[in-house]
């Protein structure tokens, strides 16, 4: 396709809207900076009181880095501020990529992933796959114990798999990731045979994901609220969750018996830290203020506006990593007007200069996305889609005219048959990360100025957001998935009856492509199939507007070491290898 002409009149209007929005954001940031010290004076006092009351193992979560013998194997405390509070602490119910780092503090999976994407031993020492791809035989470790004292073995893995496919427990997992699961059989105390109903090239990837974190069978039977998790839903991991204060923090203490880390870990035996507290601080300015003032030693989710501050401070370090899986995208609901018309879907995309919007919100730190698969999954990402759509206001306006949206109301929005051209996104607050609310406001301004589209943005509680989905009362669904294998994300988002197919689009041909790609372990074959999938949903049907590739940013004090990212997912690792002290 031709490159859009930046001299078009529509761009002048759009660029001015983006500049206006940037100026507004700058003013807001200045007000925030002015108020940070005031906010932190109150917050710090509350934090000191809270932390003083909840010390564990001889230290306090708010103690300075290096407490308890320098923070090595003798102990040490760490306070880590995170952007998002987990909806659940049960790994089987995991769904927030931002909460992934907490899962592997408490729970271990059967398999780990290496730097080249290879599968490595963890709780499973080895495995064999039958020639027909239907039978997997796992040899499990015989020295692993759950936090409640139960022994880990084939029976416990069997119990976890059967729980995952039980009715009403996790419909997405049972219907998609484990749709080919047949049965599990403990053939010996530490030997498990799993039989599939059909070959599944994603089965091992599932067993390496947070969903496959091993939960004590006792917890599966007797937990007060199994789906929500908590102190009575226990695993085998390096840390034990012993306290959760909603809206404030979650606290973990070291598991002294731990000696079964995944292959590739920096050390063996128990974690270095005696305890770690994760504070829930959703405001970016507050997180950064907490780090620079010494209230916390680590933060995740560093906004673009603060990266310069972090990098200029010799006491601090900054690490970033692109996430695997799907890109953050606006998915168009094609089951209802106006996005049942492909011309309107294409017009929305053409009305947005995504590069300008990203620059205004993230100041050059966000990577532009061009496909449903992000560049964080290079083995399947199709670069041929780059610069083939978008950023063409003249075409957007022509398409809308052709679709019958020719008139304008007093506010400049397009109208047809007396109805305004309105599209809505309804987001659950716990899933809003990376300043996506501000991003949506920038897109809102762009599509209004460029094409007269009324883009309405709502951030609500989880129940209200789910009701909007159930009632089909939305036009745009915002989503990114952090699956280590991008195919797992596509199966959840694009298949006709998939758990989070919010475009409500589906065809037998698209389902066939997804199924064929999932069934094979041949990387070249999967790459070819996923290229066809991307062409279908991005180019042929215009089902989404890819926006940016999610990334994680971690900033920490110079006295902290062992901060790493999972090699495939690109998300922060657990705190197992982390130390404090100089």
Give the integer mean of the pLDDT values.
Answer: 87
What spatial form do the alpha-carbon principal axes imply?
globular
Biggest sheet, spatial arrangement of strands: 8-9-10-1-11-22-12
Distance between the amino and carboxyl termini = 55 Å
Report strand %.
Answer: 15-25%
Query: DSSP helix count?
Result: 17
Oligomeric state of this protein: single chain
| Unreliably modeled segments | 1-72
Helix content: 25-40%
- Number of DSSP strand runs: 22
Structural class: alpha+beta
Please describe the biggest sheet, giving its number of strands, its sense, and whether it closes into a barrel: 7 strands, mixed
Q: How big is the Rg?
A: 24 Å
Keywords:
globular; seven-stranded mixed β-sheet; four-stranded antiparallel β-sheet; 582 residues; 22 strands; disordered N terminus; alpha+beta; 17 helices; 19% strand
């Amino acid at each position: 396709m031709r490159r859009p002409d930046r001299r078009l009149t529509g761009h002048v209007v759009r660029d001015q809207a983006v500049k206006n929005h940037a100026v507004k954001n700058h003013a807001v940031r200045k007000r925030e900076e002015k108020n940070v010290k005031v906010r932190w004076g109150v917050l710090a006092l509350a934090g000191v009181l809270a932390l003083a009351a909840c010390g564990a193992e001889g230290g306090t979560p708010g103690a300075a880095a290096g407490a308890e013998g320098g923070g090595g194997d003798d102990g040490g405390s760490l306070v880590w501020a995170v952007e998002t509070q987990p909806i659940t602490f049960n790994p089987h119910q995991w769904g927030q990529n931002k909460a992934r780092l907490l899962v592997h503090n408490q729970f271990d999976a059967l398999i780990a992933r290496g730097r080249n994407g290879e599968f490595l031993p963890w709780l499973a020492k080895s495995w064999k796959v039958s020639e027909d791809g239907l039978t997997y035989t796992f040899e499990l470790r015989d020295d692993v114990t759950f936090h409640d004292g139960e022994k880990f073995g084939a029976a416990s893995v069997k119990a976890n798999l059967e729980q995952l496919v039980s009715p009403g427990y996790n419909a997405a997992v049972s219907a998609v990731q484990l749709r080919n699961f047949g049965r599990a059989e403990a053939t010996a105390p530490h030997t498990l045979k799993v039989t599939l109903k059909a070959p599944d090239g994603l089965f091992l990837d599932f067993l390496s994901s947070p969903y496959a974190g091993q939960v004590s069978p006792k917890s599966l039977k007797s937990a007060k609220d199994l789906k929500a998790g908590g102190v009575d839903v226990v695993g085998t991991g390096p840390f034990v969750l012993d306290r959760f204060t909603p809206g404030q923090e979650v606290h973990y203490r070291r598991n002294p018996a731990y000696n079964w880390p995944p292959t590739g870990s920096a050390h063996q035996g128990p974690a270095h830290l005696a305890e770690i507290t994760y504070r829930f601080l959703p405001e970016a300015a507050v997180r950064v203020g907490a780090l620079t003032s010494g209230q916390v030693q680590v933060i995740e989710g560093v906004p673009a506006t603060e990266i310069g501050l972090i990098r200029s401070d010799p006491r601090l370090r900054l690490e970033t990593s692109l996430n695997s899986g799907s890109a953050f995208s606006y998915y168009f609901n094609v089951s209802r007007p106006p996005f049942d018309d492909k011309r309107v879907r294409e017009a929305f995309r053409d009305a947005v200069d995504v590069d300008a919007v990203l620059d205004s919100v993230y100041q050059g730190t966000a990577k532009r996305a061009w496909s449903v698969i992000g560049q964080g999954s290079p083995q399947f990402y199709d670069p041929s889609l780059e610069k083939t759509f978008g950023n063409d206001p003249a075409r957007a306006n022509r398409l809308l005219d052709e679709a019958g949206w020719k008139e304008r109301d007093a506010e400049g929005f397009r109208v047809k048959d007396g109805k305004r051209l309105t599209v809505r996104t309804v987001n659950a607050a716990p899933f809003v990360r990376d300043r996506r609310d501000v991003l949506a406001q920038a897109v809102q301004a762009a599509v209004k100025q460029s094409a007269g589209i009324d883009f309405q943005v709502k951030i609500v509680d989880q129940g209200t957001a789910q009701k909007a989905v159930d009632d089909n009362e939305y036009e745009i669904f915002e989503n990114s998935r952090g699956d280590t294998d991008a195919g797992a994300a596509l199966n959840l988002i694009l298949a006709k009856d998939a758990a989070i197919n919010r475009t409500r689009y589906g065809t037998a041909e698209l389902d066939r492509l997804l199924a064929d790609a999932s069934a094979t372990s041949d990387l070249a074959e999967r790459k070819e199939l996923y290229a066809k999938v991307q062409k279908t949903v991005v180019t042929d049907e215009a089902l989404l507007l890819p926006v940016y590739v999610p990334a994680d940013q971690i900033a920490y004090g110079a006295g902290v070491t062992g901060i790493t990212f999972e090699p495939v997912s690109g998300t922060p690792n657990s705190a197992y290898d982390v130390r404090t002290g100089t």
